[in-house]
Please model this.
Amino acid sequence: MLSFEEKNRLAVVYSATCKSFEKVLDPDVLKLQIDDLSDFDFEQITHALSVYRTDPKNRFWPKASEIRAIINPQPDTKQVAIELAYKIDKAVKKHGYNWASGQQQGGATYYKGGSNLYHTFKDAVIAELGPLGWHAICARGGWLSVRNSANEMDEGIFIAQMRDQIQASYSLEKQGFDITQIEMPKDKAIESNRNAGLTAIDFNNLGLRNEN
Model:
């Protein structure tokens, strides 16, 4: 937060910067610009003004919104969504069907997320793919649904569909929704395999002929 003294000092710097673009701000307009930046530190603002002033692409005086964007740049949501979609595709190839079923160790079930083990599948997914990844997978029908889509679709189509879902999830997050509260749809196939044991195969039901 800017102190009263820092606001006065900033007014001098801001006015001089605007004059370098042949713009003289009215006092009330100058006050508005400074008030809109008052949640940042004095050094952050003056540095951003310097960056703006020395960028040859800038031809008009700097608005507070433009200075804020220099201090606190917002991510390109489409690029973030594309990168996360590729991470989900990589997770499908890495974990396959069994990720949601977990690993049995010492009578307990664990789920690997990144390089660590977690007690819940949700924690593992969030650790590896973040809250956006968790929400996007749940919204697409759960892990098995996403895994099947990745295996059945052209990779480019799968990435595009996941990208769109991630952007929708991001939009919800920006609206104030806690996207970690969504739960994974129950998948009967996964529950069945978990109860039966992942390595258990019922050879009697495979339809094999008895040659004896």
